Amino acid sequence: MLNLHQIACFVTVAETEHVGQAAARLNMSASPLSRQIAGLEARLGFALFERRRQRLRLTAEGRMFLDEARALLDHGARIEAGIAMRAHGADAPITIGYVEAAVHTGVLPGALRHLTGCYPRAAITLRAMRSGEQVQALREQAIDLAFIHTPSDDDNDLIGAHICNDPLLLAIPAADPLARHTTVRPEDLDGRIWITAPRRANTDARAEFLTACVAAGFMPDIRHEADDLITRLGLVGAGLGLAMVQDSLRHVVGPDVVLTPLPWFPLSVPVHVLRRVSDERAVTDLIYAAASAMRRSA
User: Fold this and answer.
1) At which of 48, 69, 87 does a domain end?
2) Do 156 and 277 sit in the same domain of this protein?
3) Do 131 and 64 share a structural domain?
4) Which of 132, 190, 208, 218 matches a 20 to 30 Å C-alpha distance to 264?
5) Domain stop point among 52, 87, 122
6) What CATH code is carried by the domain that includes residue 140?
7) Domain span at 217
8) How far apart are CA 243 and CA 213, in angstroms?
9) CA distance 143 to 274
10) Burial 146-182 (b: 16+ CB within 10 A, else e)
11) For the segment 79-135, what is each residue's pLDDT rounded down to a tens digit?
12) What's the longest Cα–Cα distance across the chain?
């Protein structure tokens, strides 16, 4: 196998055409340098130089080998630089968990835009996951950052920051007389049919929603469930009931749905960013700092 040190010696001698000058540039003595060249010639099976007076001249084979030798050294330098970058986390792959609200509010896209502006070669994997799943995956090092709704309980291994609250709006079928009301009151919603996320998806969130409804003065009749918000909006548009939708989804609402703010309804959708304290890579620091800098409240 070719020795990169021998190849570097060969390239330097070829460029100077003098063993003494090459040795000075390489910070070594002339005799060890000559032995390196001889060893390389023995391995290759042909002469690289011919001596003319006090100068060395490349043979025809030596001239052909010089281009290959320089390419080998350049490739080795790129590998070394790449390893150094990965060691500092600048070019390392990073896996990020997220909830939909982190995308719709612009938090996650904004953080990634900042990342790729600083580290264009960063390899990013995104995984849509529920908040609880992300916290567990973060602890198990299956993901590197988590964009979640519900922050972790006290955990010395994790650190997080609240970024924003996405206000909730009432989605009403456009054909429903309620859609023409300039103000919607709690009593207007009492006993109305609702479309929500499945109870199994997040029992705590369902309980919090029902508690907030009762506290506001109405009781929803939850008859339909759908996993994603786009489907729930479709059901609203079909006239099957009412739903709560994040303000950040306003741009995807079609003409068959009317969105109305409820200033008296206390709930909103929070977004937090979470990371491991032990992860000191530059790429993790950058995304976490960029997301935290977007902090705002509804």
Assistant:
1) 87
2) yes
3) no
4) 132
5) 87
6) 3.40.190.10
7) 167-266
8) 12
9) 11
10) bbbbbbbeeeeebebbebbbbbbbbbbbeebeebeee
11) 665 555 555 555 568 899 999 889 989 999 999 998 888 888 788 899 999 888 999
12) 106
Q: State whether 79 and 118 are in the same domain.
A: no
Backbone phi, psi, residue 94, to 5°: -135, 135
- Between 276 and 151, where is the model more confident? 276
Tokens describing residue 252:
């995807």
State both tokens at 135.
């916290």
The phi, psi pair for 183, rounded to 5°, reads -135, 130
Alpha carbon distances (Å) from 254 to 181, 238, 242: 19, 11, 15
